[in-house]
Amino acid sequence: MFKAHGVERVDGVDASSAMLDQAAAKGIYDRLVCADAAATGLVGQRYDLAISSFVACHVADLDKFYAEAARLTRPSGKFLLVDYHPFMLLKGVPTHFSAPTGEPIAIVNVVHLIGDHIAAGRRAGLALLELREQLVDAEWIRENQRLFGEPRLVSHSGHPVSFGMVWARA
Fold first, then answer.
1. Residue 94: Cβ within 10 Å count
2. How far is the C-alpha of 126 from the C-alpha of 66, rounded, in Å?
3. How many distinct structural domains can be found in the chain?
4. pLDDT tens per residue across span 122-152
5. Is 1 within a domain?
6. 3-state secondary structure 123-156
7. Do 149 and 75 share a domain, yes or no?
8. Which parts of the chain have pLDDT scores under 70?
9. 82 burial class (0-12, 13-18, 19+ CB within 10 angstroms)?
10. For residue 75, is it within any domain?
11. Of 40, 78, 123, 170, which one has the fewest beta carbons inside 10 Å?
C-alpha cells in the first residue's frame, strides 16, 4: 500500500514483541524494532513522515517521545500522532484489550493533557499544523458494532475518544 504511493521505506517500532509479530504478518515493513518509542535506535533524519498510533498514552516522558519523533524526521518532515483522548483516561476508562480467552487486559496509561502534547512538541522543535478531536458519535458506534459485533462505547456518546495532531519539523 505505502510503496504503491512512492514510499521508499516503512519501519515499525513497538515495545511489545507480540504486537511486532502481528505487524510482521502484514508484510509491509522493511524493518521492525522492539524498542521504546522514546528511544527507537533508528537512524535519525531518515523519514519524511513518522507516525505514532495510540502510543503516547503509554509514554511517561512526553519530552523524550517528541524529541525522538523530531530526531527521526528529516528537515521539513511531518510527524502524525493519533492517540487516545486524555478525557477518557480522566473519566476512568483506560485503554484495554481482550486476551484470546476474552479476558480484558489494561496496560499502563499516563494522562497527558492536549496542552502537554503541544508544549512537548514545541520544545522538540516541532510546529503544530493541525489538531482534531474525535467524539464518540453514531457513526463511531455503528463502525465499532460492525467490527466487534457489539455497540461499544454507547455510554460515552458525545465524549472525546481520540485525537490527531500533524506536526512539521522546522
1. 14
2. 8
3. 2
4. 999 999 999 999 999 999 899 988 988 887 7
5. no
6. HCCEEEEEEEEEECCHHHHHHHHHHHCCCCCHHH
7. yes
8. 1
9. middle
10. yes
11. 170
Provide the grid cell at 98.
481482550
Q: Which of 41, 37, 66, 48 is nearest to 6 (CA)?
A: 48
Do 123 and 63 belong to one domain?
A: yes
**Whole-structure pTM value:** 0.91
| Residue tagged 521508499 (cell numbers) | 8
| AA letter at 128 | L
121 plus 69 within the same structural domain:
yes
C-alpha cell at 25: 504478518
Question: Which cell goes with 83?
Answer: 492517540
Question: DSSP readout, 49-73?
Answer: EEEEES-GGG-S-HHHHHHHHHHHE
Q: Which helix (H) or strand (E) holds 33?
A: strand 31-34
* Kind and range of the H or E run holding 122: helix 114-123
Q: In angstroms, what CA-CA distances link 63 with 45, 98, 120, 152, 154?
A: 18, 30, 5, 33, 34
φ and ψ of 72, to 5 deg: -75, -30
Q: Which of 68, 65, 62, 51 is nearest to 86 (CA)?
A: 62
- Phi/psi at 2 (5° precision): -65, -45
Map residue 78 onto helix, strand or coil. strand
